[in-house]
Structures are given as C-alpha cells and as structure tokens.
Amino acid sequence: MSLIKQLWLAIIALLLLSFVGSLAISITSGRDYIEQEVRIKNEDNATALALSMSQLEKDIVTLELLISAQFDTGYYRRITLRDTEGQVLIERSASEYRGDVPAWFRNVIHFDVPIGTATIQDGWRQFGTLELESQHSFAYASLWRIMLELAGWFLLAGAISLAIATVVVRGIKHPLVRVVAQAKDISARRFTTIKEPRTLELREVAQAMNVLSANVRQMLSQESQKLDELRRHLQHDRVTGALNRDVFMGRLSSLLGSEDARATGLMIMTRVESLETLNEQLGHQATDQLLSELVTQLSQLAPTPEEALVGRLNGSDFILMLPLEADTGALIPRLRQALDTIALKAPNIGMRLPTAVVAYTPHDDRGGLLATLDDALAEAESASAHTTVAVREHQHNSLFGNHAEWRSALNAAITLGPQLAYFPVIDAHHNVLHYECPARLELANNWQTAGMFIPWISRFHLEPALDIAVVKKALEQLTSNPAQTLGINLSIASITNAEFVIELRRLLEKQPQLAKQLCFEVPAILNTHAIGSLRGLCTALRPLGCQFGIEHVGAEFTKLADLHDIGLAYLKIDSSLIGGIHTSHEQQTIVRGMATLCHSLGIQVIAEGVTEQAELESLFKVGVDGATGPGVRLN
C-alpha cells in the first residue's frame, strides 16, 4: 500500500475516531443527565400528587379522576395507587414507547430510572402508596436529535477537514512524486537532480540524491576527460593535435565504404613547403606553434568543431575532410583567407602553402582519391603564389540536372514512401538486439541509398518530412511482424523541430504497442541546442516505451556526462574505431574505456562497421554488447 493511501486512511480513521468518541461522550453524558433529572422529576411529581390526594376525601372516583388528569398530560408511562396491603386500587399505564426513534438506538441507550414513590395519608392514618414512572419517549427523541445534529456537524467538519487534508496531501505528494521519480531515474542509472522540497524529511532525501547525482556527473566528467587524454595520446599528433596518419586513413576508408551521408563532401590537403628551412629560421617552438595554428585554421573551415576531421599525413602534409560540403565556390575564399592568415604570421620567411581541393563521394577508391589529391597538389606547388589552391571537381553523373528537378523528385519520393533496409545488430550469443533500418528512396527509377540523397535532403530542409515517412513505414512493417525491434535514424534538424516532435508523438500514440518496438538514433554531432532537443524528445516519447541511442560515436565523443540524465539505451561506436581492432592495442584500449564508462550508466555499447569475424571476437572480448556491419550475419 502506498504512503499516500496510508496517510488518507490515517486521516479518515482519525476523523471517525474523533466522531465516535465525541458522540459516545455526548450521548453518555446526556443519558446520565436525563436519568438524574427524570429520577428527581419522578420523586417530585409523586410527592406533589400524593400530597394533593392526602388532602382530598378518599373517594376512589375522585382519586381516579385526579390520577387520570395527571396521567393525561402525556409525560407518564405509569401511575399506580396501592393500598396498604399492596393491592392495586387505581392504575393508568401507556405503551412502552411512542415516537420514531429507531429500536436499535433505544436498546443502546436503555434508560434505567427508578420509579418515584410517595405515601398518601388519610388524617393520621396511611391510606396507600403512589407509584409514578415517567414516559421516556421524549428523552429518546432528544438524544436522537442530538446524535443527528452531531453527525451533521461531523460531516460538515469532516468535509472541511478532508478538503484541507487534500491540499496538505497534495503539498506532500508533489515533492514526494519528484523524489520517487528521481529514485527511479537513479535505479535506471539516469542521475537527475530535482528541486529540494520544503518538507524536512523529503528535503534530506532529495539533498542526498542530488549529491549522488552531482558526484556521478563529476565522476563521468573525470572519466571522460581521462579517456579523451588517452585518445589524444594514442591517436593524435602531439605537436598540432591533428589525427595521426593511420587513424585518419582508417576513418577515411570507413567513411568511403559506408552508406552514410557523410561519405559525400570535400577533402583539402595543404603542404608546408621547406619545413626544415622554417625550423632553422624560426626555431622548433615557433614552427610547431605555426603548424598548430594551421590545424586550427583548417578546423574552423568546418561548419561546427564537432565535424572537423584534420589529419597529419607526415611532417609537412595536412589533410581536412568536410562531410556534406559541396559548394567549392563558397569554400575557396574562406580557405584562401585561412591560408593567408598563416602566411602572414611569418612574413619575412616566404612560407608557401600549396593546397589541393578534391570532392569525394560514397565508394570512391581511397588510393585513387589520394592520387588525385597528390596530382592537384603538384599543380599547386608549380605555381609561384604563396597560397595557390588547385581544385579537382569530382566527375560523376548526377541523377538530376538542377535543383528544381532534385526538389521535385525528392518530394515525390517521400510522398511515395521510403523503403527500409534490414541490417541485424547481434549480441555475443548471436541474438538480434534490433535491426538497423536505413532509408532508401526511389529516384530515377532506382532505390538510392542515403549517401546519394541526404545532402540534397539537407539542402532543401526536408529532413522532418523524410523522418516522418520513415517512421510511418516502420510502423507499417511492424504491423505485419510486431516481434521485431527496428532502429530508425532521426536527423538533428528533425529533433530540433517542434512540429516534427508533436507529429511523431501523435503518430506513435495511435499505436502504443508498436511504438515499444522502435529505437530512435541520432548522430553524435550534438551541440547544446541539439542536446536540449534530444532531452525533450526522450521525455515526450519515453512513456510510450521507445528506446533512444546515439550513432557514429567516435573516440572524441565527450558529451556523455551531458547525456547521463536522458536515459539512452545504447551508443554505437563509429566504424573508424572498429576496423582492424583485432590488431590494434590502442583501439582496444579506447573501446574498452568507452564500454566501461557506458556500462556504469547502464548504456549498451554497439560496434558499427564490423567487416570480419576476428574483429567481432575482439570486440566482445573488450566489453562491447552488440555489433553490426557487413561482417555480421545471422546463423
């Protein structure tokens, strides 16, 4: 039984006890008082009547008339005149009770009043004895009326008391509900904080839980910081902070081999000529600072710091990937300005920064792409300017000739409805955790993967429309096979769109049983606004049983401490950290640290992009809960 119910029962029991106690005391006191008054009345009336009869002639008829006149007043149950021998001379009596008081009440009260007696004299001689007994009907009626009045006042007082108690209980229940919700969050490893209630006992509990949540948050931040330091030590160049060559190449291969939208974009390679001469003229420390500033300037070319992917291929060559970037004309001025900023830091040295820009698309050959970059870089080096930029446009056939055709085709494809692919996510026992369901759209009479149309979807701001269509298709698939669990990708643009969230909730509330079989995944590129939107989305959809996850999580993902209260079900580690993990001790160390940190919050860790059995076995050894990718097959 809940505490609130116990509190209500205690209040009601207290009110009933007060009513019964006050009623019992009032009735008992009233009965005792009435018995005393009736006893005195019996004696007084008997004495007065006997005195009157003693002064009259002792004619039976006259005495009977006097007794009848007294009896007919209605206040007596019996008046009896006996002679000296005890024989009844005259007797008038009435029924035991007259009135509408219930019998059970009379049985409970039961007046016990002695009869009044008096002696009648005839001169100096005793004539007889008079016995008088009052009628109790009026006493019963009086007590019954008192009880009804007390009950009425009790009901009124009880109603007022319950109204006041309702306000008090609500005042207690509201902070109690918050404390209970926080306790449930902590049991689910969501370390939330709440406003401290005014109730002393609840405030102490809330303070303890808030301290626990704060300590966990601090612990997560510290562990994330340690993991980030380890990652930087193992994967980044210590001078500039750029990715090492092997790490960058692994991420490039992973990205090009995926169907993700980030597999489309631009790649920039910059070479610092005559690095040895710069070291001699500026000194190692100044040169290192100059190279670090170059990496910073290149990183700022990305839309957000989270999307910047800069690598150092060797001492003088730096490379930058800009996913989803397609407008070379808009990029070149910003690139030239960044390079000029670096060149101006050493104006007397004559530093040259030849740069090549190449577009890349899904399934490009990495070797061919790098060869194209080298060719363009050689062209830039042959020029005499300080910051010469050579551009190589990607030669590929676009599905449509212009923006209007793309927009029309995308709207038609979304209206027609997407197609969902099925990729299993399995655990160590080859049980299916859920199915990844990336969308396909029918464009140019073929079903195209996300890497082909997502850049155009983003350009036309059609993400919410596409995501709603995907959810509808998933619900349709679950209707025919409700035992499956499907993972659906949601874009950042969708979760930050209030209308999308409202429509999504309305759609899922119509089919709550199927909503429990959906997992919603958002990309790891989350800014502060996106984290707040994700928190609101989780709050809105969690009562429906939906699960939430983060996909494409790289080693640089440091927002776990900000997401601990959202209630994530899983994180999917990006394939760039998974490829070749069975041969890389550094990757195993990083993935093991990420898994340990996530498990402390009850979050599952799933590996993306698994290509071979050796990787799968190594992943489960370091603590990963699930895996997906080309190398994952159901038995």
Automatic annotation (TrEMBL):
GO annotation, biological process: signal transduction
Domain of life: Bacteria
Residue ranges of domain HAMP in the record: 170-221
Every EAL domain range: 399-635
UniProt domain GGDEF: residue ranges: 263-393
CC annotations in GO: membrane
PROSITE patterns, per database record: EAL, GGDEF, HAMP
UniProt-listed InterPro entries: Cyclic-di-GMP_PDE-like, EAL_dom, EAL_sf, GGDEF_dom, HAMP_dom, LapD_MoxY_N, LapD_MoxY_peri_C, Nucleotide_cyclase
Xref: SUPFAM superfamilies: EAL domain-like, Nucleotide cyclase
A GO MF label: cyclic-guanylate-specific phosphodiesterase activity
One Pfam family cited in the UniProt record for this chain: EAL
Name by which UniProt lists this protein: EAL domain-containing protein
Natural source organism: Halomonas qinghailakensis
